[in-house]
Design brief:
The complex is a heterodimer of chains A (113) and B (227). Chain A is mostly helical and 113 residues long. Chain A has a domain of 79 residues. In chain A, 64% of the residues lie in helices and 0% in strands. Chain A contains four helices and no strands. The radius of gyration of chain A is 23 Å and the shape is elongated. Helix content of chain B is 81%, strand content 0%. Chain B is built from eight helices and no strands. In chain B, helix 2 crosses helix 3, helix 4 packs antiparallel against helix 8 and helix 7 packs antiparallel against helix 8. Chain B starts with a helix and ends with a helix. Chains A and B meet through helix 2, helix 3 and helix 4 of A and helix 2, helix 4 and helix 8 of B.
């Protein structure tokens, strides 16, 4: 990794113009308004899907531009993506187990014969 | 005594040798500044990954609780103050923007710009906490607060439990982020510490603040909108 990124000059990292950050901020605020408006419409279970999709677009904008993800190498991207993969495995694992269990039966005191 | 003096003299020599001019990267043995920068950033991203996993456990519990108590979650979610939640979202997004600008300022060697932009982010963090306190107080007045034991809390205990856990842990991260921005951003920048050659702490501090924003991006719709 250090070989690929090794610069002999002193400057490190990529300088992102502030105007780009402003555009991203405006996009994030617009998406916030969109997500609030979308929640006023009753779409049943699609409400939460839509809300999570918009949130993921917003999160991607923050990671890609604000957090300089666009200019990062493959190792950092591995670190960015691993927690999301683990979260998916965890939620997936819980939901393939928990809802399919039989509901707990209240304990009953049985009388000795 | 003589030995002590020798040690002191050699310490002074070391300090002289390691003296770093403002704007220069610190001396790290066996590592040039560009490698140190890459290593520090990699370490920060690893730490952020563990932070995401900390919240991942809570998001997972939220999903399970919501699955079992769907109607309770819908009703309780409507009791949250949506305008205040939306306002807090905007405040955090704006603070994230100024934190990102602070990094660009540091890269250009504009220490005053770092102080200015991080101070705005810091103030936004304070505004966020004040609004959150107003919300918590409003809930407490209606009995919907932990340790205010009454029927209102018990009616929505599953939702309120996860709500206070998630927003409370997030608020803790806001406070930590503000401290980080002050110690590693504002205070050194006041002493012209940063330049295009060295701004690692500014970037890492900003990364932490973006994470705080990132978590809230998911918390807001889940808690306030869809319940």
């Amino acid at each position: 990794m250090s070989h690929a990124n090794h610069h002999s000059h002193d400057e490190v990292g990529h300088i992102v113009p502030e105007s780009l950050f402003l555009k991203v901020l405006i996009a994030l605020l617009v998406l916030t308004v969109v997500t609030v408006l979308a929640a006023q419409v009753d779409l049943g279970k699609w409400n939460i899907v839509g809300a999570l999709l918009i949130a993921t677009v917003k999160a991607s904008l923050v990671i890609y531009f604000f957090m300089h993800g666009k200019y990062e190498n493959r190792i950092i991207w591995t670190y960015i993506l691993i927690p999301f993969v683990l979260l998916a495995i965890m939620i997936g694992g819980v939901f393939t187990d928990d809802p399919f269990r039989s509901k707990p039966v209240p304990l009953q005191v049985t009388q000795q014969p | 005594m003589g030995k002590d003096k020798e040690v002191m003299a050699s310490n002074a020599a070391v300090a002289e040798h390691h003296h770093v001019a403002p704007g220069d990267p610190p001396h790290i043995h066996h590592m040039d500044s560009s490698t140190a920068y890459g290593a520090a950033k990699l370490g920060m991203w690893l730490f952020l990954a563990t932070e995401v996993l900390l919240f991942a456990v809570m998001f997972c519990s939220f999903a399970v609780m919501r699955y079992y108590h769907l109607s309770e979650f819908h009703d309780a979610s409507n009791h949250l103050n949506l305008p205040l939640g939306a306002l807090n979202t905007a405040v955090l997004l704006f603070s994230s923007y100024t934190a990102a600008v602070a990094v660009t300022k540091a890269q250009k060697g504009d220490n005053k710009g770092v102080v200015r932009n991080f101070s705005i982010s810091f103030a936004c963090g304070l505004i966020f906490l004040v609004i959150k306190t107003i919300e918590y107080t409003g809930k407490a007045e209606h009995g919907m607060f932990p340790f205010v034991w009454n029927e209102h809390f018990y009616e929505y205990k599953n939702f309120l439990g996860i709500y206070y856990c998630m927003t409370g842990l997030h608020a803790l991260h806001v406070i930590i982020g503000m401290i980080v921005m002050y110690i590693y951003g504002i205070r050194p920048a006041m002493n012209n510490r940063y330049s295009g050659r060295y701004y690692t702490p500014v970037e890492l501090g900003a990364l932490y603040w973006h994470l705080v924003d990132l978590i809230w991006i998911y918390l807001f719709p889940l808690l306030y909108l869809v319940g």
